[in-house]
Amino acid sequence: MRKILLLACFISFNLYFTQTNEDIDNFEFYYGYKDYLNDAPVKSKVKGEIKTATEKYFKVSKFRYKDTDEKAKPENFTWAIKFNNDLYLSMWNAAYIYSDSFVKVDIVSKRYWVVFLNEKKDSKVIGANNPYGGGLIGAALNIRPRSSWKNKNGENYKILLIDFENPNITRSRPKDANAFLVDTKKILEVTNNDPEVIEKLKEEKYTIEDFANFIKSKI
Questions:
Q1: Please, are residues 21 and 62 in contact by the beta-carbon 8 Å criterion?
Q2: Is 103 exposed, middle or buried (0-12, 13-18, 19+ CB in 10 A)?
């Protein structure tokens, strides 16, 4: 029954993107993260082709303006897209992952955005790069660094975090707030070395639900 429901959702999502021009008419663009903070999305008359669509992410060909057929540079380098009241982050702004997809944001606020990516189901947008290996975080803490986190059902996830109060930006692209790939150090940083969190990390019992609950408590 669960497989049937998932299949129905997948088909529905793909059908929604079938009428390309109509769907892209509904896209609103955030050229930079401050456009989001200022609630100032831009609605452009562009065209393009949806190449891949799942419940979590989609890929689209290069945007062109409908009137002139010229490449739509701001839209092609957009930081995020709003579609049907959902927000999708450009994965070019996802540290260590970088891909030409837009992923749906799971937790949205004016302080944080959080994206959870299932390492199996969403593998095509994650890639194979894993920058965090062995070693320990501090002799006193004795915690092994990780960037893969389980949910309560035991599935592995990557977590992306955008912190608007402490944006991760570069000089070359000051309009873009890059997502942090959440590892053990980032969890310790945002939770301010909470003793309960440290204990869960040591026992490898810290889950994506724990992280979600913490973020929601700060919204």
A1: no
A2: buried
H or E element in which residue 43 lies? none
Whether the CB-CB separation of 184 and 149 falls below 8 Å is answered with no
CA–CA separation, 181 and 91 (whole Å): 11
In this predicted structure, the answer to whether residue 112 has a pLDDT above a threshold of 80 is yes
Residue 29 to residue 41: CA distance in whole angstroms: 5
Contact 45, 69 (CB under 8 A): no
> At residue 162, what are phi and psi to the nearest 5 degrees?
-110, 125
Helix/strand/coil for 190: helix
Residue 140: pLDDT band (50, 70, 90) is low
pTM over 0.85? The answer is yes
CA distance 156 to 199: 20
* Nearest-angstrom CA–CA distance, 210 and 219: 15
Quick check: 180 and 186 in contact, CB under 8 A? Answer: yes
* Best CA proximity match to 42, nearest among 94, 80, 70, 89: 80
Cα(58)–Cα(112) distance, integer angstroms: 22
Answer for the pair 175, 31: CB distance below 8 angstroms, yes or no. Answer: yes
